[in-house]
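name: query_chain
kind: protein
chains: 1
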Amino acid sequence: MESDAGKDESRKRMYRKCYDVEKLKKYVNEGKSNVEIAYLLDISVATVIAGVKAYGLKGMRKRGRPKKELIH
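structure:
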């Protein structure tokens, strides 16, 4: 069975084939949203999110409505 480090390396190799990793890193550092990055690299948003996780980048968080506070 592979170790976690081995899985991480194979994941990085897989993403390297799908898109340009340097461009992904550049767009994330510029603060572009996942949807913008997906459009610019012509890949799916899920692939962008997986690539951000694989490389440990600080990607954009979802900008939705804030969670409602529970009333006790």
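note: The chain has a mean pLDDT of 73.
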